[in-house]
Prior knowledge:
mainly alpha; 69% helix; Rna Polymerase Sigma Factor, Chain: A; two-stranded antiparallel ribbon; 262 residues; 2 domains
Amino acid sequence: MNNPLLEHHSEEELWASYKKKRDPLIRESFIKQYAPLVKYVAGKVAANMPQSVEFDDLVGFGVFGLIDAIDKFDPEKNVKFKTYAVTRIRGAIFDELRSIDWVPRSVRQKSREIEEAIVQTEAKLGRPASDSEIAVTMGLSEDEFSKTMMKVSSTSILSLSDVWYSADDSDKISIGDSIESPQSMNPDAIMERDEIRRVIVQSIQELPEKEKKVLVLYYYEDLTLKEIGKVLEVTESRVSQLHTKAILRLRAKLTNLKKGIV
């Protein structure tokens, strides 16, 4: 850490000072200190992406997430900066990948159709729907549904970081955001966010066991899909399907919440 600022002050002191003064030198020192974290997260994301996605591009996207994390981090919250930054870096990478729109339109359409089928089926059943039940709603055989899921998951960049958009679609609320300070929000917005967080946590608990394990291992244990495959003793493509399905289920649950069904 050969940084003059860090040699004379503790990190806690630097965060307190940065929060008050927004000193660009302190900001620069944090960017340099945590730059390896961007490469680490980019490497994890790259491991689950097609080869056409360049690692250096992911690092570039991730730097914006790091800067965003530094600017928004609240040192008074009982959360380590590293934990907070990983969520922000990963979110920035996915946001940029979405903005350059490299996922084929047909795949996005299929993803929406699956999500809508999950919304309808689970609202009707009042519980998580099985693959066969979702397939029936879509008018597909189980085999056709499985092939559709494979196609979507192989090119999908669905992520917990974009699990929910509130009413105007500009205020994104995710599990990562839920650890931010809500001081600037009005009471109604705080109540909405608390309710969304409660539903997300409850929805994860209600997921089928393997889907729940994939989310925990990917987002909280930070394993790649390949590593998760070894833990669960299934193929990497199966893990990718489980991950995609879990995210679609969560989004469906939140869509039902938005419509007042949950």
